[in-house]
From TrEMBL:
Residues 91-202 form the Phosphatidic acid phosphatase type 2/haloperoxidase domain. The keyword Translocase does not apply. Keywords: Membrane, Transmembrane, Transmembrane helix. It comes from the Bacteria. It comes from Caldisericum exile (strain DSM 21853 / NBRC 104410 / AZM16c01). This is Hypothetical membrane protein.
């Protein structure tokens, strides 16, 4: 099938997916409105969290989230519109569920006191802290969205190598949330939550036929 035939066959999906892409963007922005203290703020840090070291070098991994997600979404939007639909619905659902939790069960993560200096990695963490309030922690969207971005590559057998590499990347993203003191261990629940959401849409859209 040439590109024109492919576009003609899938033009309706492209139209639907364009709307869904816009919805992804706007639902992701709900975070900005809920990222503040409410009447009841919970701290989920435990004694185990105190054992996790602060490793500022993980800021490089942490900051890779958005570009990798954008590239993944763009790839499936262009080349696999049938897979993009349930993927986008998974992102939208994750954003809506997470922000609902932020509203009814707001959490706070204590951060280390660090200042701008001569260390590039520390300085980047300071920038992160200044641009992102220490709320909206449970569940972690960094954990959740990275899990989604890696899971979707397993749908197609020919992308299995990429899927495994993306899984390693997602694990590093999850670790970065801990080593940068952006999240506590409990917040990692965002990853299995996202995978569970994707599996629901995977079955609903019968993606096993895409394998």
């Amino acid at each position: 099938m040439n590109i024109m035939e492919f576009l003609k066959k899938n033009y309706k999906l492209y139209l639907i997916n364009t709307v869904l892409a816009v919805v992804i963007y706007y639902t992701s922005k709900i975070y900005d409105f809920t990222n503040h203290a409410t009447a009841n703020v919970h701290v989920l840090a435990t004694s185990f969290d105190k054992l996790v070291p602060f490793i500022p070098q993980f800021i490089v991994i942490y900051n890779s989230l958005e570009p990798v997600i954008y590239l993944t979404l763009l790839f499936f939007f262009i080349f696999h519109p049938r897979i993009f639909t349930p993927l986008s619905l998974s992102f939208i659902t994750l954003f809506l569920v997470s922000n609902f939790v932020y509203v009814v069960f707001q959490t706070y993560v204590p951060r280390p006191q660090i200042t701008i200096g001569n260390n590039y990695f520390v300085n980047e963490v300071v920038k992160l802290y200044s641009s992102d309030n220490p709320y909206n922690c449970f569940p972690s969207l960094h954990c959740g969205t990275s899990a989604l971005a890696s899971s979707v590559w397993f749908v197609k057998k020919k992308y299995k190598l990429i899927a495994y590499l993306m899984s390693i990347w997602a694990i590093l993203i999850i670790l970065s949330t801990q080593f940068l003191k952006q999240h506590v261990i409990a917040d990692i629940i965002g990853a299995p939550l996202a995978i569970g959401i994707f599996l629901v849409f995977y079955k609903a859209f019968n993606l096993k036929n895409e394998y």
